[in-house]
Every structure is written in structure tokens, then in C-alpha cells.
């Protein structure tokens, strides 16, 4: 498991910090930074070209902000996970990012070790949100109109419902596969399908929603 | 149908003129007729005289014939018979007979009767007898007879003469009559035509020169009378319409004057409000101007933060009144809501003495303007209109001031958010970068002695602290006070802290109606936030109270908690927040004190004089808030030391 090499692209318009992140990631041999970008436009291009496993994205950037960049990347329809790494701990930014399909939302003032750990979790398919922001996110998402989703949930296949429960428990794809006795690739396909059916932009959003709505 | 002969005065001029002319002609015609008649009479008269005169010659002829001897030549002498016949023919001639009047006593008749009877009874018989005796007396008798005939002729002549005299008299009378009638016509023409006409002309001139009451009083008849009546009627109409016109002009003039007054007032008030931000002095001037135009006993302008109905009693402030004029409103101060309701209840029934005008702008009430009229005065429509306009102007001015303030606020926040972004872009990134470097250093120094590790740990904590402070600063700069004003921001803050910390926080804001400058609001809000953050981090409190009040001319903000109280010399970690609070108080031009609470916990108190225009209020009647200011400052020994402490902090 540890032998997997993750290809990472870092998008941040602050050169010094970008350098620091690259150096930080270098501490972990599992991570391999394959590309850097100093802005959203350049970042999208890089991601499209390199198709990395993980994109680390800043929120406040000059040419194209993080949310817009995130949407562009999601439009590429890659398997790349996108984790926001930002200074802003405002719940509005967090909610916007999650709604735009972010797979994680980390703060730059977190302990660097913590950042590494969370990135790893995100790569496993878990929620990568600092605890103090989790509650704000749940509160914000609760305000969404969920009646549609409650109806839609009956349209999920049995397998998809099982996978949604696993997501709510914060299991990664691999663990879900093991739990349900299916291949990791199959899990991915099911996750994509259920996200589409319930109109979620990320498994993070789906997981938070499932927890909030008592699906376990 | 009875036709009455019209009265003379009712006759037309032409009729009367015709009548006059007729009267003028009539005597002439009469005299002409009489003269004709007279002439006719006299024409016979001359012949009669002639004939009578010839009787004398005939008498002598008879006598001569009778006495003459027989004619020598027959036929050379007149025959006696023929002469007698001739005499008789003449005596009884038509002309004489015609000249004889019928009246027996008339002289002519008597004379004629005498000569006729003498002829018939005496002379003719004597002649016929032809006796000698008679012949002897014939001559004297004839002589005497002729004398009698003479008398007859005289009588005839006299009668004729008298007739001529009568004719002359008649002529005279006729002449005089004509003259009289002429004079009478002249007089009549003057009195009936010229005089009325000239007097009418006089009156017309009078009317022309503006004496519309003048009337024609001259008596007049006929066409002149009609003219007079018509003219008088016309003058009546003229006078009527003129007086109507005059009253209308007076009405219009009064209206114009009113309008001018109203315009002047409006202009003055507009000018007052346009030049400056509305403040106490401006309001005083406005009320003074109002008082000059409208008889007011009291007038005030009370400002409220929102609709006075929504504000609990005693929280609306009365900030401006016309004290210069010695006018003070007799209302319960700070009871604007009651004032407004009071006035509206009375509305409709009878003319009110107290009026309340809301200061409105686009549906938002910024205050009210209660007025008390002088006794016995009721306002007319235009005055009410002016008052309403003025209240609208005031409302608009207040709204404008508030808009300006919120624009200012917006600009301020714009600037602050720019600063926040820049801080984020530079410092936060750099700090994060440093943290990463520390981690790297830590991993590189893995096997090194504990000292180095401890230093690294220290470095890490320092960085974390710096980052936390930076985050606080960012929060501060992102803090916004929007449309809801300070009160809404305070409520949001209280809610936020209550939820985040679990401490029960009460808010008592008695500042409603007081507009603070945007910077002041920010400072007050920040100090409260900082104090609450301290309560959260250090005090271990269960509950806290935030109190804002207007005391005297100061704003007093207190934050009390029931925590463990403050250390007389607070630890360094706390200093940072405290010095920020103190800095803020300093930039407000006020003071900040931190001291143990009365029972337990800590009390943070901020006092400052706001820079807003309404701060020069003189009244000190605020009693509904506990007044910490009443405690003498000198009774707090800890306060000066605290100040010193903060000064040291600054220099450090």
C-alpha cells in the first residue's frame, strides 16, 4: 500500500509558499510533485496535461480564483482528487469549495505533519477537512434543500446505497471494496454513479450529507 | 281696450318737440285767421263809411233839388224822386247793412236807427207832401239831419277804428305767445335734454376716473330717462364687477403672498439642510425659521434609529430642540413613540394644538418633529403643507446623512478588505512557509540533542502564535458593519460568540438613535469582540453582559463577566489583545479600564465622546442605565496602574 506513488500538482500563486509545499511533500516518499502552477489558468492546463492523482489548490489567486479553477478541473472529468489548501477559514469559502467538488479543504496554518496526513486520507477517498471546520460545513449544507435527494435516494441501486453508507463512515475506496468484497475499480464506478444520481459534486459532499441525514 | 293718453313726461322727445312746435305755430296761424277775418270785416267797413258819408251829399242834393226852381231845361235838374230813391238805395245799401251790428244798444245801430227813422217818419213824408211849410224848414232840417248823419259816420268810423285796434292787439298777443312758447321750449330743451345729458357726461367722466359709486340723479324723462336708466344700470354692473374684481385681486394677492412666504421658508430650510450635515445647530436654525413663519409655542426634532413604534419606550432620543427661543417641548423626554401615538389618537376630532410630523424618507422614519401651536391658532392648509414639506426635507437630509455615512462605511470596509487580502497574500503565506521549513528542519535534526528540539518547538509555537494573531487581524479586517448598523453587528457578534463559546452573553444596547461614525462603530465592535474573546479564552466565565449607554455626553461601553477575574499583572500572552483594545480606545479619543467586577469576574469599560454631530447634547437626564461614571475615578486605585502598564506595553 505504501509503495503507491502519488503524482501531485501544486497550484498556488505565492511562490514562497509553493516552494514550501513542494519541500514539505518531498519529505514523504509517497508523494511525487510532477507539476507546479502559479495561477488558475496555468494550473488547469498543467492538470489536464499531467492528469495527476492529487491537485493541491490555493483559494485566493490573482488570475482565476480557486473555486473557478476547481470547477475547470472537475470539468476535465479526471480521476484527480482536488484538495484546497488555503488561509481562509471562513465557512463560506469552505462550503463553496465543497459545492464546487473539492475532495478536501485544508488550512495553511495547520501543522505541516497534519497536512500530509490529511492529504493521504483524501487520496484514500476520505473527507479531508480539519475538525474545526467540519461542523460549519455540516451546518451550511443542512441549509440546502434536501427533499429532492431524499426522493432520489430510492433510485439508488442496493450496491450504491451500501457504498453511500460506507462513504458516510469515511472509508476509502479500497476499504469499501474490501468491505463489500468488490474490486476497487468497481467501487469507483459505483461512487461516480451515485454522485451523479444524487447530484453531488464530490464524495466529500455526499459523505457529509449522508452523515447529516443519518445514513449509516 | 282703454287707451290712456300718455303723460307729457312720458312722451317721446319727438312728440314733445312736435307739440312745442305746434304750440309755436298755433298763435301765428290764429292771428293769421283772425287778421283774415278782420280784413274781411273791414273791407265792407270802408265802403259803408263811404256810403254813409255820401248820404250827407245826397241829403243836400235832396234839399237842393226840392228847393230849386223848376228847371229851365227839362232834364237839366235832377228829379226829386230819383234823388230820394238814390238816397234810399244808399241808406239801405248792403255795405251799410253789413256794417250794422245786431246789438240794438250799439252806438252805430242807434245812430242808424235815428237817421233811418227820421228819414222814414219825418223827411220822406215831408218831401212827399211837398208843402211850402216844410219847404221853409227843409234846409235847416236837412242841415240838422246831415249833422245826425255825421254822427252816424263818426260812429261807423269809430267802430272801424276799434276793430283795427283789436286786430293790432291780437297781433301783439300772438307775437307774445310765440315768444313765450319759444322761451318755454328753450327752457324745456335745456332742462329736459341739455342738462340731463351734461350731467350724464359728468357722471360718465367720474366713473371713468374710478368713482364707480357715482350715479345719475338728474330727473329725466322720455328717451333721456331711458338713457339714464340704462346708464345707471351699466354703472351698477361696472361697480359690481369692479368690486368683484377687486376682491378677487385681493384674494389672489393674499394667495401669492402665502406662496411667497411658503417658498421663502422652504428655500431657507432647503439651504440650511443642503449646506451642512444635519446637526444640533442646523436643527435649531430650522426650528427657528419655522417659528418665524408659523406661530409655534414649542418645537422639537427628535431622532430615532428606526420606526419609533418599534422602539421600546424611553429608548428614542430627543436630541434637538429650539432652546434658543426658550422653547422646550413639554413632552416626556425620550418618549417619542408615546408622543407620536398620542398625537395620532387626537387626530380628526378637533383642531389639535400638538402636531407630530414623522421625518420620513422613502418609507423609513428617521425621527419625528413634534410641534405645539400657540393658543387659539389653527394652521391653514398651506402651513400644514409647509410643515409636511419641511419634515420631508428633514427626513431626506437625515437619510442623506445616513447614506453618506454608509457610503463612507462601505469605502472604509473596502479599504479594510484590501488590507486583509494583502496581509493574507504576504504574511500568511510567509508564515506557513516558515512553518514548513521548521518541520523540515525538525526532520533533518531528528537525531540531534533535546536542546535543539526544544528550540525548534519554541520556534514552532512562536510561529503558531504569530499566525493566530494574524488570523485575528484578518478577522478584524473582514469584519463588516452593514446596513443594520452597529446594533445589528453587535447582535450578530453576541450570537456568534454565544454559539462558539457556550457562554451566555446578554446585550443591552441603549444607543438607539445615536449615530456613530463608521470608524467609531468599528472600534467599539472590535473592543467588544476582543473583550469577549478574552472572556472566552481566559475568564472561564459562564455568562457575560455587554452594555452600551449614552451618559452625559459620553458613550459608555461595559463588558462584564462572572469569570475568575483578572490577574493584576496579566500575562504576556494577554497583553497583545489588551494593548490593541487600548489602542482602539485611544483612537476613539476615549479611555479604557479593566478592573475586577463588583462581585466577581472582570469589568472592561470604554468611555468616549463620539464625534457625530449630535454629541453636544446638554441634557444629563439619562437615568435608566446604571451609571458607572458616577463612581469617582480616584476610588479605583487599580486604574492608573493599569494605564501605566499599558504604556509600558506600548514602548516594549
TrEMBL record, chain A:
Pfam families: GerE, Response_reg. It comes from the Bacteria. Residues 7-123 form the Response regulatory domain. Keywords: DNA-binding, Phosphoprotein. InterPro entries: CheY-like_superfamily, Sig_transdc_resp-reg_C-effctor, Sig_transdc_resp-reg_receiver, Tscrpt_reg_LuxR_C, WalR-like. Residues 149-214 form the HTH luxR-type domain. This is Two-component system response regulator NarL. It comes from Chitinibacter mangrovi. The gene is narL.
Automatic annotation (TrEMBL), chain B:
Residues 418-612 form the Histidine kinase domain. The chain crosses the membrane at residues 13-34, 172-190. Pfam families: HAMP, HATPase_c, HisKA_3, PilJ. Residues 228-262 form a coiled coil. SMART domains: HAMP (SM00304), HATPase_c (SM00387). Residues 612-652 are annotated as: Disordered. Keywords: ATP-binding, Cell inner membrane, Cell membrane, Coiled coil, Kinase, Membrane, Nucleotide-binding, Phosphoprotein, Transferase, Transmembrane, Transmembrane helix, Two-component regulatory system. It comes from the Bacteria. Signal peptide: none annotated. One of its GO terms (molecular function) is phosphorelay sensor kinase activity. It is a multi-pass membrane protein. It catalyses: ATP + protein L-histidine = ADP + protein N-phospho-L-histidine. The keyword Protein biosynthesis does not apply. Residues 191-243 form the HAMP domain. It is found in: Cell inner membrane. One of its GO terms (cellular component) is plasma membrane. Its EC number is 2.7.13.3. This is Sensor protein.
Amino acid at each position: 500500500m505504501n509503495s503507491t506513488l502519488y503524482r501531485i500538482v501544486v497550484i498556488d500563486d505565492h511562490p514562497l509558499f509553493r516552494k514550501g509545499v513542494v519541500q514539505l511533500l518531498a519529505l514523504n516518499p509517497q508523494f511525487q510533485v510532477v507539476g507546479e502552477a502559479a495561477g488558475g489558468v496555468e494550473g488547469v492546463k498543467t492538470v489536464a496535461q499531467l492528469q495527476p492523482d492529487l491537485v493541491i489548490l490555493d483559494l485566493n489567486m490573482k488570475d482565476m480564483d480557486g473555486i473557478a479553477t476547481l470547477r475547470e478541473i472537475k470539468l476535465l472529468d479526471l480521476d484527480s482528487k482536488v484538495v484546497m489548501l488555503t488561509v481562509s477559514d471562513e465557512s463560506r469559502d469552505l462550503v463553496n469549495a465543497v459545492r464546487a467538488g473539492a475532495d478536501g479543504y485544508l488550512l495553511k496554518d495547520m501543522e505541516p505533519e497534519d497536512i500530509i496526513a490529511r492529504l493521504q486520507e483524501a487520496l484514500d477517498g476520505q473527507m479531508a477537512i480539519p475538525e474545526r471546520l467540519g461542523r460549519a460545513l455540516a451546518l451550511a449544507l443542512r441549509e440546502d434543500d434536501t427533499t429532492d435527494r431524499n426522493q432520489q435516494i430510492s433510485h439508488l441501486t442496493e450496491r450504491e446505497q451500501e457504498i453511500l453508507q460506507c462513504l458516510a463512515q469515511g472509508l476509502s475506496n479500497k476499504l469499501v471494496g474490501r468491505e463489500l468484497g468488490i474490486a476497487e475499480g468497481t467501487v469507483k464506478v459505483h461512487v461516480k454513479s451515485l454522485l451523479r444520481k444524487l447530484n453531488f459534486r464530490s464524495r466529500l459532499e455526499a459523505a457529509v450529507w449522508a452523515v447529516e441525514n443519518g445514513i449509516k | 281696450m282703454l287707451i290712456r293718453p300718455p303723460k307729457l313726461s312720458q312722451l317721446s322727445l319727438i312728440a314733445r318737440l312736435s307739440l312745442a312746435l305746434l304750440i309755436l305755430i298755433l298763435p301765428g296761424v290764429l292771428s293769421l285767421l283772425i287778421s283774415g277775418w278782420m280784413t274781411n270785416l273791414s273791407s265792407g267797413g270802408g265802403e259803408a263809411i263811404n256810403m254813409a258819408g255820401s248820404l250827407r251829399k245826397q241829403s243836400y242834393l235832396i234839399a237842393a233839388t226840392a228847393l230849386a226852381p223848376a228847371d229851365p231845361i227839362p232834364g237839366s235838374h235832377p228829379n226829386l224822386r230819383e234823388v230820394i230813391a238814390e238816397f234810399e238805395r244808399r241808406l239801405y245799401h248792403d255795405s251799410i247793412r253789413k256794417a250794422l251790428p245786431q246789438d240794438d244798444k250799439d252806438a252805430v245801430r242807434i245812430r242808424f236807427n235815428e237817421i233811418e227813422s227820421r228819414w222814414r217818419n219825418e223827411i220822406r213824408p215831408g218831401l212827399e207832401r211837398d208843402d211850402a211849410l216844410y219847404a221853409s224848414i227843409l234846409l235847416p232840417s236837412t242841415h240838422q239831419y246831415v249833422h245826425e248823419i255825421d254822427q252816424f259816420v263818426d260812429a261807423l268810423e269809430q267802430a272801424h277804428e276799434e276793430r283795427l285796434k283789436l286786430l293790432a292787439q291780437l297781433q301783439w298777443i300772438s307775437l307774445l305767445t310765440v315768444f313765450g312758447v319759444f322761451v318755454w321750449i328753450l327752457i324745456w330743451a335745456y332742462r329736459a335734454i341739455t342738462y340731463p345729458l351734461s350731467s350724464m357726461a359728468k357722471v360718465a367722466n367720474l366713473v371713468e376716473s374710478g368713482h364707480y359709486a357715482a350715479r345719475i340723479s338728474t330727473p329725466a324723462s322720455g328717451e333721456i330717462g331711458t338713457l339714464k336708466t340704462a346708464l345707471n344700470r351699466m354703472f351698477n354692473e361696472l361697480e359690481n364687477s369692479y368690486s368683484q374684481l377687486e376682491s378677487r385681486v385681493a384674494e389672489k394677492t393674499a394667495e401669492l403672498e402665502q406662496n411667497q412666504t411658503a417658498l421663502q421658508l422652504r428655500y431657507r430650510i432647503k439651504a440650511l439642510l443642503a449646506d451642512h450635515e444635519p446637526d444640533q445647530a442646523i436643527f435649531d436654525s430650522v426650528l427657528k425659521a419655522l417659528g418665524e413663519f408659523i406661530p409655534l409655542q414649542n418645537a422639537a426634532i427628535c431622532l430615532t434609529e428606526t420606526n419609533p413604534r418599534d422602539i421600546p419606550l424611553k429608548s428614542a432620543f430627543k436630541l434637538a430642540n429650539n432652546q434658543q427661543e426658550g422653547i422646550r417641548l413639554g413632552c416626556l423626554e425620550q418618549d417619542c413613540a408615546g408622543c407620536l401615538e398620542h398625537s395620532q389618537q387626537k387626530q380628526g376630532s378637533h383642531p389639535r394644538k400638538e402636531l407630530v410630523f414623522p421625518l420620513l424618507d422613502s418609507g423609513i422614519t428617521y425621527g419625528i418633529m413634534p410641534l405645539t401651536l400657540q393658543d387659539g391658532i389653527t394652521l391653514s392648509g398651506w402651513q400644514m403643507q409647509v410643515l409636511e414639506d419641511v419634515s420631508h426635507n428633514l427626513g431626506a437630509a437625515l437619510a442623506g446623512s445616513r447614506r453618506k455615512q454608509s457610503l463612507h462605511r462601505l469605502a472604509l470596509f473596502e479599504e479594510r478588505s484590501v488590507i486583509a487580502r494583502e496581509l493574507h497574500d504576504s504574511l500568511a503565506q510567509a508564515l506557513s512557509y516558515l512553518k514548513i521549513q521548521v518541520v523540515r528542519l525538525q526532520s533533518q535534526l531528528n537525531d540531534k540533542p533535546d536542546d535543539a528540539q526544544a528550540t525548534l518547538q519554541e520556534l514552532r509555537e512562536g510561529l503558531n502564535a504569530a499566525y493566530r494573531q494574524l488570523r485575528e487581524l484578518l478577522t478584524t479586517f473582514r469584519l463588516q458593519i452593514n446596513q443594520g448598523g452597529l446594533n445589528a453587528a453587535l447582535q450578530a457578534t453576541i450570537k456568534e460568540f454565544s454559539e462558539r463559546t457556550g457562554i451566555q452573553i446578554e446585550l443591552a444596547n441603549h444607543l438607539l438613535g445615536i449615530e456613530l461614525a463608521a470608524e467609531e462603530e468599528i472600534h467599539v465592535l472590535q473592543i467588544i469582540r476582543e473583550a469577549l474573546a478574552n472572556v472566552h479564552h481566559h475568564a472561564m466565565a459562564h455568562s457575560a453582559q455587554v452594555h452600551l449607554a449614552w451618559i452625559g455626553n459620553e458613550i459608555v461601553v461595559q463588558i462584564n463577566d462572572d469569570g475568575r477575574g483578572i490577574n493584576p499583572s496579566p500575562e504576556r500572552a494577554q497583553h497583545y489583545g489588551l494593548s490593541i483594545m487600548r489602542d482602539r480606545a485611544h483612537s476613539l479619543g476615549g479611555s479604557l479600564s479593566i478592573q475586577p467586577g463588583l462581585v466577581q469576574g472582570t469589568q472592561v469599560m470604554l468611555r468616549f465622546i463620539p464625534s457625530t454631530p449630535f454629541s453636544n447634547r446638554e441634557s444629563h437626564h439619562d437615568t435608566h442605565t446604571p451609571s458607572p461614571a458616577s463612581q469617582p475615578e480616584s476610588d479605583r486605585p487599580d486604574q492608573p496602574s493599569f494605564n501605566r502598564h499599558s504604556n509600558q506595553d506600548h514602548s516594549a
